[in-house]
Amino acid sequence: MPRILSSDSQEIPFRKRSVKGVDLFVVASSVEVIAEEADGSAALDRETMGLMIGRIYKDEEGAYAVMHRTVTSDLVADATHVRFDPESMEELIDGVDAMADDERIIGWYHSHLDYGVFMSETDVRTQHSLFGEGMGFALVIDPLRGEFAVFDNSETPQKVRMIIME
Ligand SMILES: [Zn+2]
């Protein structure tokens, strides 16, 4: 599975965040990719899923993340379930391996088809198994309702504010 942030010993660079109190910034094009994937999958009556790739910085407030791209692979999906296709794990790992030294998996995303945006029990388990005690975000999008939200990695994941940057 992807490298787990909490076990990552690499030094986190200092860079002041542009908006106080926000722990997640995303480059607009990366969130557009997620929305397009979610729409395309919804047209096939399927959920979508992938990993959020970005960088981690810190300032006086602590650590925060900036997502600039996503990575995914073929999926095994229907209208209520989604997972990475084990047959194409290699594709996913290639995408992860192509990360620059300072890039990290900062989160994962998946879609819900017209049942709203929340973290199911399975979603919470996935979140905790991916990120352990470290920083990691879960973006949930419902393309049919036109809703999305991002959740943190606390025991009961809470919604966080996300700032979209050009
Ligand atoms: Zn879900």
Which helices and strands occur, and which strands form pairs?
Layout: E1 24-27, H1 28-43, E2 49-59, E3 62-71, E4 75-77, E5 82-84, H2 89-97, E6 104-111, H3 121-131, E7 137-142, E8 147-151, E9 159-160, E10 162-165
Parallel strand pairs: 1-3, 1-10, 6-7
Antiparallel strand pairs: 2-3, 2-6, 4-5, 7-8, 8-9
The site of zinc ion has 5 residues, from loops.
Could you characterize what this model shows?
The chain is of the alpha/beta class and 166 residues long. It has one domain: Cytidine Deaminase, domain 2 (3-Layer(aba) Sandwich). Helices cover 22% and strands 34% of the residues. Strands 9-8-7-6-2-3-1-10 form an eight-stranded mixed sheet. A hairpin with a 4-residue loop joins β4 (75-77) and β5. The longest helix is centred in the N-terminal third of the chain and has 16 residues, at 28-43. It is globular. The model is unreliable at 1-7 (pLDDT under 50). Bound molecules: zinc ion.
Shape-level CATH architecture: 3-Layer(aba) Sandwich
Bound ions, cofactors and other small molecules, one mention each: zinc ion
- Average pLDDT number: 90
Strands across the major sheet, in which order?
Answer: 9-8-7-6-2-3-1-10
Q: What is the global morphology? A: globular
- β-strand percent reads 25-35%
Kindly, what is the distance between the CA atoms of the first and last residues, rounded to a whole number of angstroms?
A: 31 Å
* Low-pLDDT ranges: 1-7
- Can you give the helix content as a percent range? 10-25%
Order of helices and strands: EHEEEEHEHEEEE
- Whole-number count of domains: 1
**Oligomeric state of the chains in view:** single chain
The CATH H-level superfamily is: Cytidine Deaminase, domain 2
CATH names the topology as Cytidine Deaminase, domain 2
CATH domain class name: Alpha Beta
SS-based structural class? alpha/beta
